[in-house]
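Course assignment 3, question 2. Fill in each field.
Student: A.L.
Task: Predict the tertiary structure for the chain below.
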Amino acid sequence: MKNSTKYYLCQKCNFETSQWFGRCPNCGAWNSLLSQDISNKISAKIQKDELAKPISKLKFNINELRYQTGIVEFDRVLGGGIVPGSLILIGGEPGIGKSTLALQIAQQLVDKIGKILYISAEESIRQISLRADRLSVNSEHIYLLSENGLEKIIAQLKEIKPKIAIIDSIQIVNDSNTPSAPGSITQVKSCTSRLMEIAKKDDIAMIIIGHVTKDGGIAGPKILEHIVDTVLYLEGERFQAYRLLRSIKNRFGTTNELGIFQMESVGLKEVANPSKILLSSRSEPIPGTVTTITFEGSRPLAVEIEALTSSSYLNFPRRLTTGVDYNRVSLIIAVLENKLKIQLQNKDIYINSAGGIKISEPAIDLGIAVAILSSIKSLAIPLDTVVFGELGLTGEVRTVSLCERRLREAKNIGFKKCIIPLENGKQFSKKFEHLEIKTLGNIGDILTILKE
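Answer field:
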C-alpha cells in the first residue's frame, strides 16, 4: 500500500486492503470494497497565534459559558446546559420524540442566544413547519432548512452563523467527497468529523440526531460515540407516555444522569417528581410488590419492584426479568434458596421494575429479594415501607452509598418505615423523625422483620 496511490476500503467494517476483492476478507460483505486515494503528506506551517500555550495561563469557567435551555430535565442531564462549540448526539428509536425535543430546545434558547439553524435531511420544510406549529415554535430567529448535502449545509452555517445548529438526522447527510452510500460507516464518520471541525472553529454548538434501530443497525450512533462530546439516549416505548433521556457520555458533566419527560399533544413535558409516577396508586398492599430507592446519576428515585412466582411444569423453570439484571436476579434466587431454605428450583419467577426504569445498581438487591419472598409467602408488604441494600453471596446485607439521601427521599414521599443495612442504620437510626428505621445484617432475619 505504501507504493500505491490508492487502496480499497470496506464500507461495512472499514477494512483496508491494497487490492480489490469481490468479497471483504474481514466481514464477508459482497461488493463493499471501494477505491480510495492516498493523500500526499503535506507539512503544516504553524502560525504564531496557533502555538501551544501554558495551561497556567488558560482560565475558563465552564459554568459561565453554558446555554441554559430552561428545560430543567434536559439541563440536568447535560450537567447545567449546552456548552458552545460542543457536539451533542441525541440517539433513539424512530418516532421516540428526538425531533420534538430538538424543536422545543430551539424555542427555549432562541430568545436568549440568538440565531438557531434547524437542518432536516429527512423531512420537507412543510413537514417541519407543521410540527413547529403544533409545538408553538414560531420565532423569526429559528431558521429551517431541508438539505442533505454536506457542502450546502456547511455553506449555510457559514452564511447564517447560528449559535446552535441542529442536524436531523446524521444518517441521511451525504458528503459528495466520500464515495459511499448515505448511512454507511464511512459517510456517517466523515460527515460528523467535518461538522465537528466547523463547531470547534466557529464556536457553534451542534445537536446531531441519530436513529437507533432495534436490531442494532450498523449506521446507528454507536459508531459516533468516540467522536462527539456528549451522547444522550432518548428511551421509552413509542406508545407509552413517558420518555427517559439518559446521559451515556459527557465531557462537560457527569454521566448516567437521567431526565424524565411525558409525551403530550404539545410536545415533551418535564416530570417534576418522577418518584410519584413510578409508584402504584393502589390503596391496599398486595403480595409480590415492594418499593426501593435507587439512584440515577445524582437523583434518587423511588421504584416499585414486582415479583411473581408460580409452579413450573418445565424441566428448566422460567426466569424472566424486565428493567433489572438477569444475572443479578439469579444470584439473589440462589442466596434465598441457600440461606432461607426456600424451594425455588421448581418455580417460574418473573421480576419487573414498574414504570419502564432500567436499574443496574446493587442497592436494589434487597428489594428484589423481599419482592420474591412476598410473592411466594403471600405476604403483603405495607405501602408505607421501603427497602434497599446490597446482598452478598453469604447472605450478608451490605452497606450502600448515599444512604442519607435515600432516606430523605423516602421521607419526602411519605414513607413511614425503612429496612436498610445494619451498618447504614447505625449512622441514621436517630436522625430522621417520623421515619421508623429497621436494620438488617443478614438475609436470614428478613422474614422476622417483615412480620413485625
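Instructor remarks: The chain has three domains: 6-37, 63-272, 277-450. The chain has eleven helices and 21 strands.
Grade: pending
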